Amino acid sequence: MSTPNRVYIARLAGVAVFDPNGDQVGRIRDAVARVRPTQRPPEVVGLVAEMPMRRRIFLSINRITSIDPDAVVLGSGTLNLRRFEKRPNELLVLQELLDRRVQLDTGQAGSVVDVAMERSRGGEWALTRVAVREQTSRLARRGHLHQVEWDRVRGLGGIADNRGTANLLAVLEDMRPADLANALQDLPDARRNEVAAALDDERLADVLGELPEHDQVEILAALDRERAADVLEEMDPDDAADLLNELPPPEQDVLLDLMEPDEATPVRQLLRYASGTAGSVMTSEPVILPPDATVAEALARIREPQLSPAVAAQIFVTRAPLTTPTGRYLGMVHFQALLREPPADLLGGIVVNDIDPLRPTTPLPEITRRMATYDLVAMPVVDRSMRLVGAVTVDDVLDHSLPRDWRDRDAMAAAPAADEETLDGGNG
């Protein structure tokens, strides 16, 4: 593979990184440029790649053998696995320059939509060209796109003020919620809050569930209360309850009152349970069907795309009503059992009820032991009248069993990790 002499960096975001043997080691998230004291454009010194477990590392530009729209390939040698930390004289191109308000030397105002790095004859990479879209009135069509030399753009240095978010969001839009949450933690607080606020309610709800509690609270506080309530409505009730538990009770009450009653009711119920119990970690919206529902109906229900894999893995069978707290709990059916039965058969004929359900007060260690003992991905939670009030899924257990700060990038940075990995391309 050959490397072009000019590469637009936003197009590299998300591109897979491969070692010399063809094994994927991560994905590109940004480029690192060193600001020079002269008027020369910043020198590109490397790329930032995201590895498994959300660890971001630095890839020296000299260690990269090829760059194309589909892959970045590393040469043989040693890969430094220490977590990337930006130095004072460096800038992260996508994080710091996209959407920046600038001015062309013609006087035309605009915003940065991409930046190109270019390789000189001596092999040095530098930021040489900037794609700038003209600023227009809201009623006008999108402004003209200019691709100009770096030194023809004013405002690329210093602290950005009053930036938009459209171009950075375009780079981030294909990320999984957990990866997007990780990217937000890399941004300065003000920028993080701007980008989060620009997400639609459903996307922001998914991302909030992947952030550490202090970031969740700060982002929610930066929204107006009506928007915050809308986002809470889009979250799973257990995630919304966890987030509200981080707020003072008066603020909890304000946001709950702003939510639609049907959305607020299950969250209020979850907030009543003591921390570390089944009631506090369960979801109040598992898949529930009556015993006279057919296998075909159950399979159609668990195919719904908004269901997480853990929630969709089993059907809970109850008498009416079918919303928590339900009628009497009868048992559950795993999706594998559904695949083995004729579509017209009734759930009541294949329901399993030989495992005692949890109580809302069951402590987390006991839940973990029982789920491990029976190899379950979810367990029912019932009240004293044997009505189903929710279900604890394996992701709930993991989330609450890990250290409280496991999603926090600062805490992860302090965790020990191997500093190096040898890449062998077979060339010695």
From TrEMBL:
Gene Ontology molecular-function annotations = magnesium ion transmembrane transporter activity
**Which GO cellular component does the record give, naming just one?**
membrane
Q: Give a single Pfam family match.
A: CBS
Q: Where is this region: Disordered?
A: 409-428
Q: Work out whether the entry's keyword set contains Protein biosynthesis.
A: no
Supply the PROSITE patterns for this chain: CBS
What does the UniProt keyword field contain? CBS domain
Instruction: Give the CBS domain ranges.
Output: 282-348, 351-409
- UniProt keyword annotation of Nuclease present: no
Q: What is this protein called?
A: CBS domain-containing protein
Please name the source species.
Micromonospora terminaliae
